Amino acid sequence: AAGAALVFLAIANELTATLLLAPNGTRTLATGFWALTSEIDYVAAAPYALIMVALSLPLTWLLYSQSKRTAGL
């Protein structure tokens, strides 16, 4: 489960690979956030940031709890 969470976090927040490899018209959370912040439309970019944080926090907690269990802490 921890490995899947780690891969998901990397994919959800990876912008450079998406910009280079995705076909035209592909919209992801990262590209939507990047496009709006580059236009200095922070109000419209806020929901994208909130969704990325909301997805990342539970998975980060899962990784942290798994690493504590593995380390025996």
Automatic annotation (TrEMBL):
It is a multi-pass membrane protein. The chain crosses the membrane at residues 45-64. The keyword Protease does not apply. One of its GO terms (cellular component) is plasma membrane. It is found in: Cell inner membrane. It comes from the Bacteria. Keywords: Cell inner membrane, Cell membrane, Membrane, Transmembrane, Transmembrane helix, Transport. This is Iron ABC transporter permease. It comes from Serratia marcescens. The lineage of its organism: Bacteria, Pseudomonadati, Pseudomonadota, Gammaproteobacteria, Enterobacterales.
